[in-house]
Amino acid sequence: MSELREHRLKRLSMRSMRRGIKEMDIILSRYADRRLGEFDDDMLDRYDALLSENDQDLYQWVSGQKPPPEGLQDIISDISKVAFQR
């Protein structure tokens, strides 16, 4: 049995808020609030996988300190745009 979309969005939103380091809590919860509802199932799969990455690595990728791995560049770029918008 697959997870209902509503439950999946809530789960991903909670995982975005409770990361481990405050900076990533803020960045990913803002991103989740603005983008998750627009995502199709494939994008939700990609975001779910991204949430398994280490917070220190994610922060360095999102902040531009290190380049993200191939295959994550587009979603990291989008996260950066949303996170650092005014």
From TrEMBL:
Keywords: Chaperone. GO terms for biological process: tricarboxylic acid cycle. The keyword Protein transport does not apply. InterPro entries: SDH, SDH_sf. Pfam families: Sdh5. It comes from the Bacteria. PANTHER family: PROTEIN EMI5 HOMOLOG, MITOCHONDRIAL (PTHR12469), SUCCINATE DEHYDROGENASE ASSEMBLY FACTOR 2, MITOCHONDRIAL (PTHR12469:SF2). Belongs to the SdhE FAD assembly factor family. This is FAD assembly factor SdhE.
